[in-house]
From TrEMBL:
Belongs to the ATP-dependent AMP-binding enzyme family. Gene3D superfamilies: N-terminal domain of ligase-like. Pfam families: AMP-binding. One of its GO terms (molecular function) is ligase activity. Keywords: Ligase, Phenylpropanoid metabolism. Residues 6-287 form the AMP-dependent synthetase/ligase domain. The keyword Ligase applies. PANTHER family: ACYL-ACTIVATING ENZYME, AMP-DEPENDENT SYNTHETASE_LIGASE, AMP-BINDING ENZYME DOMAIN-CONTAINING PROTEIN. It comes from the Eukaryota. The keyword Nucleotidyltransferase does not apply. InterPro entries: AMP-binding_CS, AMP-dep_synth/lig_dom, ANL_N_sf. Pathway: Phytoalexin biosynthesis; 3,4',5-trihydroxystilbene biosynthesis; 3,4',5-trihydroxystilbene from trans-4-coumarate: step 1/2. This is AMP-binding, conserved site-containing protein.
Amino acid sequence: MDRFTQVAILAPNVPAMLELQFAIPMAGAIVCPLNTRLDSSMIATLLKHSETKLLFVDYQLFHKAKEAVNLLTKTHSESRPPLLVVMPEVDSQSPLTLVNEYKYEGLVEAGATDFPIIRPYDECDPISLNYTSGTTSKPKGVLYSHRGAYLNSLGCVFMHGMREMPTYLWSVPLFHSNGWGLSWGIAIVGGTNVCLRRSDPKDIFDNIVRHNVTHMGGVPTVLNMIANSLVANQKPLPHRVEIMTAGSPPPPSVLSKIEELGFHVSHAYGLTETGLSTWCLWKPEWDLLPIEEQGKLKA
């Protein structure tokens, strides 16, 4: 694998997905996290566009990835298809039977612990190729530099009000701008990562209590799920949990409900092309306003 080789990942927020955010750049390559919600046809298009040479795929998405690679082979026979590496569930028996496929944990175990890190020639060298969600047209590729990723990570840590050693719950997909830059940002402040395969309200509450989570993120739909979750799935939080939301403003009613459950919501806005770039700074005097008025301001 040469310097600047594109290495794609198709996976939910599992530990291996987070590990690869570091491992791929440390090998001199460019990390390319793919949206798990895309169909195999669009994934094939992105694999072609990015010129991906290596594709790490979670075992639950293996058939989708395999179909995408097959489509790529049929429509672009002149291109060499990417090599697949399957990421099984850790400490469990995967129901998937694989033949002649590379497996992630096997490669990790066989790796050299004293390998030389391939550092960038320049801070403007690329570290990540991210694709937009494709809500207005086909997904567009955005190339992040090491400098841009570093500054975005610091900015997200600052906006999230993180101090040393936070515990972060991964409810923001890592394929969204590398988890809004916090894939690297949590490491900057020596934090602990709690990975979620899916953002289910019960799993969110369970993990907050079990791991003493201090921070998390979520788009407005995730906030809505938490606010309107079944009472049986909710648990008293050990302390106030900081939750950052981004994108379209959540309705004031959702903000009021979720804060009653023990969360404190801050609102940021950004694009794949810019990272999180705008933040609503909360004024102390707004704390004296009725909850309904606070919700309107946050929305």
